[in-house]
Design goal:
This protein is mostly helical and about 160 residues long. It has 7 helices and no strands. The radius of gyration is 24 Å and the shape is flat. It starts with a helix and ends in a 5-residue tail after the last helix.
């Protein structure tokens, strides 16, 4: 579902609940007549709490739904995506560290070639580790899926609905 649609959908549901609740005698202000909708949709609110980060939960939910994964496949995919998330986080740390080293190389009286080369080399090593992690993830995902699920995953990648 498109994220911008969630606000509209919640508002429509809230107004529909209010209209149906006012018809009942037990409902009214202060009676918590919207409590049942909040409890029913706690999952949506929890999913939106980390809106700034695209961690493991959302790709996992999306892939589980679109690929019709079985329970054991979902558990294995969660472990696979968690490892990839860790590698990406480490690559981000390495990138920030190299930016600091490059800034130090520029800050001195003369340009520090050695520090700049070391920072660039660390970026290359980090990119290679990330590349290897992505390939491992793809290999493990391929082995886990059946033929129809692999075809659906390939379609999602080609259409741009899912990125690596």
């Amino acid at each position: 579902m498109y994220p911008g649609f969630m606000h509209w959908w919640r508002e429509a549901q809230r107004h529909a609940d209010a209209a149906s609740c006012h018809a009942e005698a037990a409902c009214g202000p202060g009676t918590g007549h919207h409590r049942h909708r909040r409890e029913q949709h706690e999952g949506f609110e929890a999913m939106e709490d980390g809106a700034g980060s695209f961690g493991v939960r959302r790709p996992l939910r999306f892939m589980a739904h679109r690929l019709s994964l079985r329970e054991e496949q979902v558990a294995e995919l969660a472990a696979i995506l968690d490892e990839l998330k860790t590698e990406r986080a480490q690559a981000a740390v390495d990138h920030r560290r190299s930016v600091g080293t490059i800034a130090d190389a520029l800050a001195g009286e003369g340009f520090d070639d050695k520090a700049a080369l070391e920072a660039a080399a660390s970026r290359v090593k980090s990119a290679e580790r990330l590349r290897d992690a992505v390939v491992r993830t793809l290999k493990r995902t391929h082995a886990m899926l059946d033929a129809d699920q692999r075809k659906q995953l390939a379609y999602l990648l080609r259409s741009g609905q899912l990125t690596i």
